[in-house]
Design brief:
mainly alpha, 2 domains, globular
Length: 267
């Protein structure tokens, strides 16, 4: 098989691309080629990388060292937009890592995570373009590496990955984005509101993809998905703060009522 028609090397190229523009272009091209049916799934061996491709900036620091973000100054607003931008950039890498690392799954799994990577690239571009109108660019503020750290913690098992990255880390975005959107709406920043509403709509779908494949893998292994989700959350995220969830968004993203009660601190 010619390598250019094997999905996995192309996913690896997307994942390892360091230049922002190159990663965005390669992501879009690869997604379009997949949709045209130009790729096949190659060898099913174990694969993975330790470090994704990313630019030299932003500098990665501990959470406590991050810049102040908010609405009170242009710089604080830019820092908030930059933080959202960084989440979306990491999400591109997480999407491609889900494609490249986990082999032997149904074709629909790869279609879903290619779609996620493509949409995350779109979200990143929307936020970055707005950031530039404020006189800043991606990399101008510091950031943290929490999302990729969780990718490594869940690298050994797609079931654990589906449980903890889309259904915990990304789902937290479903809870907090409406509040951030409201703050920008109150400040009169309609362009940001429009961007965040697009992101919230798509992220419900991304978390639902995680829910669907988590439940699929649980079913394949004869596991109770609700009990398994609780066990994994308590094992890997001992300090997880319950409460403050957006039940409607999470319900649409594939959470059961029992899971919603548990995550809200009632179960």
């Amino acid at each position: 098989m010619l390598e250019e028609h094997d999905l996995y090397p192309q996913a690896r190229a997307c994942l390892l691309a360091r230049d922002v523009e190159a990663k965005l272009a390669l992501t879009q091209t690869t997604a379009e080629r997949w949709r045209r049916g130009e790729f096949v799934l190659g060898e099913s061996g174990v694969a993975g990388i330790e470090e994704p491709g990313r630019p030299a900036l932003p500098q990665l620091v501990e959470r406590a060292a991050l810049p102040k973000r908010g609405m009170h100054t242009k710089e604080a607003r830019a820092a908030l937009i930059h933080a959202l931008c960084h989440i979306e950039f990491n999400a591109i890498n997480l999407g491609w890592d889900a494609v490249y690392r986990f082999r032997g799954l149904p074709s629909a799994y790869y279609a879903d995570w290619i779609q996620v990577a493509d949409e995350e690239a779109y979200h990143f571009s929307l936020l970055r373009d707005y950031l530039k109108t404020l006189g800043y660019d991606y990399g101008d503020f510091t950031a943290h590496d929490g999302l990729w750290e969780m990718a490594l913690d869940t690298a050994h098992d797609p079931l654990v990955r589906m449980a903890l990255v889309p259904r915990v880390l990304e789902a937290r975005g479903l809870d907090v984005t409406p509040g951030i959107t409201a703050r920008f709406r109150e400040g009169g920043y309609q362009e940001v509101v429009d961007i965040l509403e697009i992101i919230q709509r798509d992220e419900v779908g991304h978390v639902e993809i995680g829910s669907r494949w988590f439940q699929y893998l649980c079913q394949q292994r004869g596991l109770n998905s609700e009990a398994t989700f609780r066990e994994l959350l308590e094992k890997y995220m001992k300090g997880y703060k319950k409460g403050g969830i957006d039940r409607d968004a999470r319900r649409r993203a594939g959470f059961s009522e029992s899971e919603l009660d548990y995550l809200n601190g009632a179960g």
